[in-house]
Design a protein that fits this description.
Helix content is about 30%, strand content about 25%. With about 800 residues, it is α/β, with parallel strands linked by helices. It has a seven-stranded parallel β-sheet with strand order 14-15-13-16-17-12-18, sandwiched between helices. Helix 18 links the parallel strand 26 and strand 27. The longest helix has 18 residues. The chain is globular and about 85 Å long.
Length: about 800
């Protein structure tokens, strides 16, 4: 028997299956979807078996055998193997990348090299013998001097030593020491045999008599019985208990957020939506539903009710959320409804927790997965429904290879499993709404809030007028007064600012110099907590200069507004207010999102100040005021989606207020109050915004009227990156039809990151039969020729952000 194996080497000539003989020992054990260890050239690597066949086109005598089975059951189902093939082709990625993205990082291979002594007598060099120190196996990294490496080469050639590769998983199964206490009869017999001096042993056995027949974790037992490890060990040796290493799961920390009660009755719109989805589910139709519901209309309840029936009929569900900050609240709702049938998967979990959650799914111990983008690859084999909440979010797009969009993967899996997909949003992406308008997706509307509450009153504050009145604060008079009223009423406020840090940049008021990152073409951001400047692209940090580095002036000041600065100003204006700040800087620690939201849900804070992560999903009864401190941040970006993102963000954040019995109020502070994105977000008027934005997209030839491909080039040498970008553009022009438009090459919006210059070109097309073929030819040319010169080329067939 022959196994077709994709090896763990991301290189162009190797991006294909290799045939390996299945040894007699493994006959009947090897199945597609298993990982194996195989010899590949002079080393050993992990491979993924994608097929098992009777014969090979190659000479069987020359085929190498599989060396080791890493798994004894397939970790990738037939569905996921087929998905990996589609994913690699669709995203122009290596097949190995498509396979690895489906597994938790803990299951990806870790390679360690060792020096293995074969003939100690043949080693005469004293420094090398000292390195070995009478051991016959040492890590290769210990040979860390040129002299030792030279000797290693000599001894490897002579056969005195060989370099061996150990392949292992990055995280292992967690085991704990469990003590299984014997029966009452055995314990009583032991008590009679104990000497009078063994006081502690007697006390422990008496304690064990009360817990006879139980299995208790060793640490807990010693703490509860108040005994030391030697006493426990002695008692176990005498036969009072049996010690076993037992496998346990690492339990992700689950936030206990105060939540709303389960509604007794659905609204007529919710009932219609649930009925439509379940009708498609029962008929096994792979319909894609776009659930367009205003904020607070009860989309989550629609998800929960449809999943209930899916689980009752023995099938499984995947629920995706865009932000980690949404996961605590969403997770707590699903756990409340479905108990231990829920697994959680998102980037804030440790590698071990992700691995354990994945194993719970793989072992069919859970039926529902709630998580971020990567949860779409959950190894379910009986899917009944897939849900993407806030489907418009850019976080569903993977920025590294394979550059997949979770929505596309969800639709592929739904087609394979003949089950429905729900794409839910108050502000759907224009592409999704256009597809729903054309009947490609099935549109479901929730036009009213679940409890029939009115939408919050939204006031747009013109900050230009505030400046004229002499108010230089980041809080308008109206917003400051509204916060004061909420503090008196003991109601809660959410303040949204689309930035982090203290100030946007540091500028010299005499010569106009801004403090730039030395590695990137971007200004450094000032962080008050650490008194330093940071680059949010490459991570470079600097101390704040006392004088201007150009003109040596002392008039160097902070400009712009960040969350830290906003927090300071709140403390000056409202010293009695309890403030929680939620941004990337305050949520670095594991579990910090959940802890901050839990505090806020329990009323331990009056004001929640944060960046994008608080703009959506939060549903707390006591929030009655939302303030948007700078609505223009996303409006003036060099991005054709700028207006759409602004409208979505303002609509979402406005929807956090007045979702329950108390009325809500929203203040949007802006310097461009007349812009249609801000005007229409004020009343959550999606359809008029969609009409206006579509006419603008049509005029300038942007999605959904055209498809876009972004090709980015980066190199340490500016002239080389320009040269390669021009060569690639000429190549594309010759390969594509005249109907496709190629824009560029031109410098990227941020033209240098981490000391690499960046250029890009865009392909705009409606129908391009030669697209995949031409792009694959370009990538083939890059991987065989240009990559040797240090060029990095990235092709994104459906970019969400172009920068």
């Amino acid at each position: 028997m022959i196994a077709e194996v994709i090896v763990d080497v991301a290189a162009y000539p190797i991006d294909r299956p290799f045939d390996y003989k299945i040894p007699e020992l493994f006959a009947g054990f090897v199945e597609p979807g298993m990982r194996v260890k195989v010899p590949f050239g002079p080393r050993k690597v992990v491979g993924y078996v994608i097929a098992v066949k009777e014969e090979s086109d190659l000479d069987i005598a020359k085929l190498k055998p599989l060396e080791e089975l890493i798994d004894f059951d397939p970790i990738l189902s037939e569905e996921l193997l087929k998905l990996s093939e589609w994913l690699a082709t669709d995203t122009l990625a290596y097949r190995i990348e498509a396979l690895q993205v489906m597994l938790p990082a803990a299951m990806r291979a870790k390679y360690e090299k060792f020096i293995q002594v074969e003939d100690l007598q043949a080693i005469t060099d004293e420094s090398f013998l000292e390195l070995l120190h009478k051991r016959d196996r040492i890590p290769l990294k210990n040979a860390n001097t040129p002299e030792l490496l030279k000797q290693l080469k000599v001894y490897t050639k002579s056969g005195a030593v060989r370099v061996d590769t150990l392949v292992k998983q990055q995280t292992s199964v967690k085991k704990v020491r469990m003590i299984h206490i014997e029966s009452v009869e055995i314990l009583q017999q032991l008590t009679d045999l104990l000497s009078k001096q063994a006081v502690k042993q007697r006390e422990l056995i008496e304690w064990m008599l009360e817990h006879a027949g139980q299995a208790i974790e060793a640490g807990k037992l010693m703490a509860d019985a108040n005994v030391s490890s030697p006493v426990l060990k002695t008692v176990i040796e005498k036969g009072a208990a049996i010690e076993k290493q037992t496998e346990v799961y690492r339990e992700p920390e689950a936030a206990k957020l105060r939540d709303t009660a389960i509604p007794e009755q659905l609204t007529s719109y919710q009932t219609h939506a649930v009925d439509e989805v379940l009708h498609a589910y029962r008929k096994q139709e792979d319909t894609t539903f776009l659930l367009h519901g205003i904020t607070g209309s009860g989309k989550t309840e629609v998800y929960l009710r449809t999943i209930e029936e899916v689980l009752e009929t023995g099938k499984e569900a995947i629920v995706l959320v865009p932000e980690i900050s949404l996961t605590p609240q969403m997770t707590s709702r699903f756990i409340e409804r479905f108990g231990d049938q829920v697994a959680v998967m998102h980037s804030a979990l440790s590698a071990g927790e992700k691995y354990d959650e994945w194993r719970r799914i793989h072992r069919k111990e859970v039926k529902v997965v709630v998580g971020a983008r990567s949860a779409i690859f959950a190894p379910f084999e009986n899917l009944g429904i897939i849900i993407l909440d806030e489907e418009h979010e850019s976080t569903y797009k993977q920025e590294d290879s394979p550059r997949y969009h979770a929505r596309d993967v969800a639709i592929w899996r739904a087609t394979y499993n003949l089950c429905p997909v729900i794409l839910g949003s108050a502000t759907p992406s224009l592409e999704s709404y256009a597809r729903a308008s054309k009947g490609v997706y099935h549109l479901l509307e929730l036009p009213k809030r679940a409890k029939e509450q009115a939408l919050p009153t939204v006031s747009v504050v013109d900050m230009r007028a505030e400046l004229k009145e002499g108010n230089r604060s980041m809080f308008s008079v109206q917003l400051a007064e509204a916060i004061r009223i909420r503090l008196e009423k003991r109601e809660q406020t959410v303040l949204f600012l689309n930035k982090r840090g203290f100030s946007s940049f540091v500028l010299c008021r005499d010569c106009g110099t801004t403090i730039q990152c030395p590695n990137c073409d971007i200004s450094l951001t000032y962080h008050r907590a650490t008194e330093n400047l940071k680059c949010h692209y490459c991570g470079h940090e600097d101390r704040v200069p006392q004088t201007c580095p150009e003109c040596e002036s002392e008039h160097i000041r902070f400009f712009g507004t960040g969350t830290q600065k906003a927090e300071e100003e709140i403390a000056k204006l409202f010293p009695e207010a309890r403030v929680l700040r939620m941004d990337v800087d305050t949520t670095r620690q594991k579990g910090s999102h959940a802890r901050l939201l839990q505090k806020f849900s329990e009323g331990q804070a009056d004001i929640l100040l944060g960046t994008q992560m608080i703009a959506k999903g939060l549903d707390f009864p006591n929030i009655t005021l939302v303030g948007v401190l700078a609505a223009d941040t996303t409006l003036h970006l060099a991005d054709f989606r700028a207006a759409e993102k602004t409208f979505q963000l303002l609509t979402q954040v406005s929807g956090r207020a007045g979702r329950h019995d108390l009325e809500g109020e929203v203040f949007v502070q802006t310097y461009t109050p007349e812009h249609y994105a801000i005007e229409l977000a004020k009343s959550q008027l999606y359809e008029p915004f969609y009409t206006m934005e579509m006419s603008s997209r049509k005029q300038f030839g942007y999605p959904p009227f055209y498809y876009i491909v972004n090709i980015q080039f980066s190199h340490e040498d500016l002239m080389k990156v320009v040269g390669y970008a021009e060569k690639a553009t000429r190549f594309l022009s010759e390969g594509l039809s005249p109907d496709s438009v190629i824009i560029g090459p031109t410098a990227s919006a941020i033209s240098r990151v981490n000391n690499r210059y960046r250029y890009q070109c865009l392909i705009k097309y409606k129908k391009e039969p030669k697209l995949t073929e031409t792009l694959q030819a370009l990538i083939r040319f890059y991987r065989t020729e240009w990559i040797k010169d240090g060029l990095i080329l990235a092709v994104d067939k459906s970019p969400v952000v172009i920068y």
